[in-house]
Amino acid sequence: MAKWLVMLTAVGLLSACTHRVEVAAKEPITINLNVKVDHEIRVKVDKELDTLFSDDSELF
């Protein structure tokens, strides 16, 4: 009989220790994903290569 009493007491104590998480927000969460991506590519050409590839050249 004492084992039953100990078991009931243990179960009662363990069931009283349940965690409860509640999330309540008044407004919905808004995520703004307006992103502007700008990139710039710079190409530097040596003057000798520029004259080599110019329109006057018959290379191409």
Structure overview:
By secondary structure, this protein is mostly helical. Helices cover 33% and strands 0% of the residues. It is built from 2 helices and no strands. The longest helix is centred in the first third of the chain and has 14 residues, at 2-15. The chain is rod-shaped, with a radius of gyration of 38 Å. The mean pLDDT is 76. Keywords: Lipoprotein. It comes from Pseudoalteromonas lipolytica.
Helix and strand topology:
Blueprint: H1 2-15, H2 47-52
Radius of gyration (Å): 38 Å
Number of helices: 2
Specify the structural class. mainly alpha
**What is the general shape?**
rod-shaped
Question: What is the residue-mean pLDDT, rounded to a whole number?
Answer: 76
N-to-C order of helices and strands: HH
Largest sheet: none
The count of β-strands is 0
Q: Report the portion of residues in β strands.
A: under 5%
Question: How is this structure best summarized?
Answer:
The chain has helices at 2-15, 47-52.
What tags apply to this protein structure?
60 residues; 33% helix; mainly alpha; 0% strand; YnbE
